[in-house]
Amino acid sequence: DIVMTQSPDSLAVSLGERATINCKSSQSVLYSSNNKNYLAWYQQKPGQPPKLLIYWASTRESGVPDRFTGSESGTEFALTISSLQAEDVAVYYCQQYYRTPPTFGGGTKVEIK
Amino acid sequence: EVQLVESGGGLVQPGGSLRLSCEASGFTFSTYWMSWVRQAPGKGLEWVANIKEDGSEKYYVDSVKGRFTISRDNAKNSLYLQMNSLRAEDTAVYHCARDRGVVALFDPWGQGTLVTVSS
Prior knowledge:
The complex is a heterodimer. Chain A is mainly β.
């Protein structure tokens, strides 16, 4: 199975500041035929199910604010919130969908400092 | 509006069985792969199983193979998870989720139903 490792486990950021979450896959999730990384990011707010934010490592889901950006470098990925808002408090998960079973990172809890 | 509503969770003893259901609405259920994803209390996410549009292909995470069975009834817009030989480590909120196309991208998710395995 592909292991997804997220860091940090949690971070506290001041309102309006940048938050960056990292995710590393144990093997490549890049499909050479279409040159796409099969990597998604989800946001889970307290008491709610996860919500898809980003897929193909950097494609924002419709309706997701542009302060959320996904980036990639080999087998390392990042989710950046450029200017943290109160409503962004949540746990964020990365997930690979390159190979079955699809696997998730352990999650990163984002809080307000 | 796309909706997924799970039911069937509850308290069950180790070794027992439970059948979860997920009722879908707001989209053409028969044209989507569907998945079950679970979340142990205070823990992360674990994909459990998925099923092709017509039910002809099914895949499972190793830890549930031989114990859980995923199925669907397209006429009833419903997804099921039959869980047998339950263990304490199966305790979790079970979410059903719609897969996007042929890839295991989950959108949307249901609110989930809690399964507690305990004596």
